Every structure is written in structure tokens, then in C-alpha cells.
Amino acid sequence: MKLTVRILIVMISVAVLSAVAQAQEDAAGSQDPAGMNRMANYYIADYQELTFDSYAFPVTSNGNKEEKTVEGKRIDIRYNLKDNVATPSPLQVVRNYESAVKAAGGQVMYDNAEDDEATLRLVRGGNETWVNLRVGNLPSGVPVMMTIIVKQAMTQEVVMDAAAMASSLSETGEVAIYGIHFDTGKSELKPESDAAIGEIAKLLKSQPDLKVFIVGHTDMVGDAASNVKLSQARAQSVIGALVTKYGIAAARLMPFGAGPYAPVATNRTDEGRGKNRRVELVEIATK
Question: What is the pTM of this model?
């Protein structure tokens, strides 16, 4: 009987220790942010990813605290300190992350030693990553919270259909198309442009007498002459797709590169520049 009790006690102890060990392992599907290792003796307790979101990061500008909203892929992480290890101070944690980011060529955009908070910016591998770091100070440990945005423009998933294009052309003589995508500085259509190009083809097939200018627009990043040339090439790429893939007569389509000269929003913000990068259809009507 005593032997059985001892065995049961051992089994319960092993189960408890196993549960504690598992509780201190990284959350399923979690990972450290790219280019940023964690502090020693920490594990990921909570982890969440959103494909697209925004966050207002505290930044320092001319000595004042301001906010900068950044959009892109969002990751929220909470690191907890493992049991029975040396506890770092919140300031030690903040300074470690700041030093690591600086060593990787990044910047500290905001530092508040009193609140144990920092905003970090790192450009690496073509990605611009923003991190808001908050460090707690609890009797049970020093949790580390991160909100991370990997900056990117929202992928246009909802495309205006042919009927909506026709309505806009009828009312205003033009329609802006935001579902046509190119890599930066390139004129080759990206595969995700297929849906928008297909709707333009439907419009043209439904109105056999319709002729349009295909007008390319850019933002103001780079010099104007290069942007005009780029926008002309992009307009021509759209025409090429309509002619070769959908059999639209080339005589019904005329390319024009407007470059940065007809903005519909400010070029001072990422959102505004995104609106200015577009392709428009303009009806060619003489009567």
C-alpha cells in the first residue's frame, strides 16, 4: 500500500513538473520577430498575427512626443520570464533591445525610461519593421510586450466590377482602377492584377463602340520625368494584357502616362501616395 502511494506521489509530481515545463514553452505557431532575438530565459506566452492593421507608435519629434500611425502586417507578442532564473530590470530589457536594433542599423524612435517603453524601427531585407516595446515590473517577473508592424500597403482585394466602371464613365467620363499592381519602379503587371484587368475587358466587350485612354499615374517619389516614363509603360502593359489575353482591339485603347501630375490625395503620407498610384480609364468621346 505504501509503495503504491509513493508511486502515485511520484507520478503526480512528474505530471505537475511536466505541466509547468509545458506552460513555459513558446505558444503554438509563435516566433520571434525577424532580425530581433529575445532576451535570455524568456518564452512567448501570447502571440497573435493580423494580415493587415495599423498602430499609433509614440515617436519623438523635435523633443516632443508625437504619434506615427503605421499600417501593415501586425504581430502582438508577450514574453514571460521563466521560473527560477535571474530577473533583469525593466531598464535592462529596454536597453538590450535598443542596442540590438542599433547594431543592426535600426533606430530608436522613442525612449521613455520612466515608463520602460521604446519605439524601434528596423529596415532589413526590404522590410520596414516598427516595434513598440513595453516592459512590465511585477513581483512574479518582468513581462515584455511588443506590438510590431511590418509596414506594407494594403492589398486591394475588392475590385470594382464592369458595371460600376460603366456607371462612372457614364457620369464623369473617367474611372480610377485600384486593383492593378506593379512592383516599385517596374511596369510588368503582377498576377493579382488579373481580376481588375478581367473586369475592364468585360466592360469593353459589353460596349463595342467604347474607346478609352488608359492613363497611368504615379506618386511623387523619384523624379518627375522618370515617373512619366514609368506611368506610360504601365499603361502600355495594361493595353498589352487586354489585347493579347482578352482580344480587345488595340485601336480602342490609347496609353497615356500622367506620372505625378494629377494627384487625388496628398503625397506627404503613405496612404495618399497609395491613392495616387492608380490606372484610370478616360472615355474618348467626340460627340
Answer: 0.53
